[in-house]
Amino acid sequence: MSPLSRREFVAAGVAAGAGLVIGFYLPRGSASHEEAFSPNAYLRITPDNKVTIVVARSEMGQGVRTALPMILAEELEADWNQIEIEQAGASTLFGDQSTGGSASVHSTWDPMRKAGATAREMLISAAALTWGIPRSSCTAESGHIKHAATKQSLSYGELAGKAATLPIPTDVTLKQSKDYKVVGQRLPRLDTPSKVKGEAIFGIDFRMPGMKFALLSRCPVIGGKVASFDDKESKTIGGVSYVGKVGDSAVAVVADSVWGAMEGRRVLNVTWDEGPNKDFNSATAGYAPMNLEKAAALLKKTAVLYSTGETAKVSPGRRISGVYQLPFMAHAPMEPGNCTADYRGAACELWAPTQVPQDCRDAVATAVGLDPDQVKVNVTLMGGGFGRRLEHDYAVEAALVSKAIIAPVKVIWTREDDMRFSTYRPASFHTLSAVVDGSGFPVQLGHHIVAPSISGQKGQPTPGGVDPDLPDEAGPVYGIPNYAITYTMTETPVPLGWMRSVYALQAAFALESFIDELAVSAGKDPLQYRLKLLAKDQDLQYFTTTWKTARMRGVLQLAAEKAAWDKPLPAGHYRGVACFGCFSSYMAEVVEITMEKDGPRVHRVVAVVDCGQVVNPSILEQQIQGGIVYGLANALRAKITIEKGRVVQGNFDDYAPLRMDETPTVEVYAIPSTEAPTGIGEPSVPPIAPALCNAIYAATKKRIRALPILSS
Amino acid sequence: MADLTLRVNGSDKTVSVSPETPLLWVLRDTLELTGTKFGCGAGLCGACTVHVDGNPIRSCSTPVSQVAGKNITTIEGLGGTGLSVLGQALQQAWIAEEVPQCGYCQTGQIMSAAALLAKTPNPTDDQITQAMNGNLCRCGTYERIRKAIHRAAGNGGAR
Question: Does ipTM exceed 0.90?
Answer without folding.
Answer: yes
